[in-house]
Amino acid sequence: MSVFLCFLFLAPLILIFLHVFKPSKLNLPPSPKKLPIIGNLHQRGKLHPRNRRNLAEKYGPVALLQYGNVPVVVISSKEAAEEVLKIHDSECCNRPETAGTKITFYNFKDIGLAPFGDEWTALRKLSVVELFSVKKLQSFRNIREEENDLCIKKLSEFATTRTPVNLERTLFTLIGNIVCRIGYGINLYECEFVDENRIMELVHKSEKVIRATAFSDFFPGRIGRLVDRISGQEKRLKNIFSEVDTFYQNILDEHLKPGRESSDIIDVMIDMKKKQEKDGDALKFTTDHLKGMISDILTAGVGGSAATVLWGITELIRNPKVMKKVQDEIRTKLGDEKERIKEEDLNQLHYFKLMVKELFRLHPSTPLLLPRQALSHFKVQGYDIPAKAQILVNVYAIGRDPNLWENADEFNPDRFLDSSIDYKGGNFEFIPFGSGRRICPGMTMGIILVELTLLNLLYFFNWGVPEKDVARENVTRDEDNLDFVQVLHP
């Protein structure tokens, strides 16, 4: 049996070795030295997004990594990003498959990770109409304002008692309830099947499965999937995700109850599914499509916005002069007697919005844009990009490129004072939400969530670190945000 297993593992690896290391006639991008069979897999730990500027410095703005049998092209410059996301957008608008994303997004029946095609087009159009249109965004305004008002009242208790606040959990609960009310028609404070404080854990579990790696990610095909099953990795990932799946199933069951009155995007999809079954349409929504949309809403809607706001407060605590300038503008423009912030108040602010821009530049919620996959061969910066290669656009490195940004690692909103650069996908030195066909459809919603939350936090409170040595040390460390903070009345 052991001999058979050895043969089972070694035979395909030998074939892969012969395939990966055979001479190529293509002009491939520069690459670190590879090891037999595994390629550059042993270097993945060194290739964290925050270290990939080193990759660009050594190998240039277009670098090739070989992860097992999968070629991965890393894009780290404005010019190369423009070629990929604009000039060759149609040639690399597909998504690669991984074991973790297959579980999290229900066989890729979602928007973010779905293969490019008719299903993806239909789902994206539906999300734009039912979630992200101007009319829909305006209709959700009261929900966003109500939840922020509730959060401020809770934080006031901490400010009065001068008790440190777990800001990360507070933000996940706030934004989680906003997203659940908008996306699912469910108020977490009244929900019978989940506690509002569990949202952070559910999002983190989902993200853990997405980030997890499996043998089949690097050696795709039947052998890779077989190894995942034999090793137990597939089962482990499903076990981690099981609680999240139960949450999604409960949401779906709630929508399937007879006599339901509310009408959100899941209700619309259920009605479309029934109509498709009746009319015999070629494109049919399944339960996987419904849960894939539910997964997209939670995973993309909550974690990124909460993390961005947390980074915002962290950077302002670290840069008190910037915080004073931002708060002076807010409190001067809005006065000091407001009991509740409204979204229209954002229109009065200028420097505040520059601060948010700077926040997105330094701390994009996805340091590497969701990976793309080349549908066909094309060239970038003169290098050949083979079909089926994965493409990673390193937004983190581009946003901190010293050739594009003066004092690139400093948090300085003043850099945008005389600049027309924005984050809507047309300026490739600043693309935190991506660009092209695969640009984030929820960009406007995400920006509103971040801006309104930060405005409330900065208008009603002053911020600092708790009186602890650990916290005082942590405030100077650039790579860590602050979980616990001191909230004070002005």
In oligomeric terms, what are we looking at?
Answer: single chain
Biggest pleated-sheet summary: 4 strands, mixed
State the CATH class.
Mainly Alpha
**End-to-end gap:** 72 Å
User: Which architecture would the CATH scheme give at its second level?
Assistant: Orthogonal Bundle
Arithmetic mean pLDDT: 90
CATH superfamily: Cytochrome P450
| Number of continuous helical runs | 20
Helix content estimate: 40-55%
What value does the Rg take, in angstroms? 24 Å
Tally of extended strands?
9
* Uncertain residue segments: 1-8
> Would you give the CATH topology?
Cytochrome p450
Shape: globular
What's the domain count?
Answer: 1
Q: Which structural class fits the helix and strand makeup?
A: alpha+beta
**N-to-C SSE string, H for helix and E for strand:** HHEEHHHHHEHHHHHHHHHHEEEEHHEHE
> What order do the strands of the largest sheet run in, or round the barrel if closed?
1-2-7-4
Strand content: 5-15%
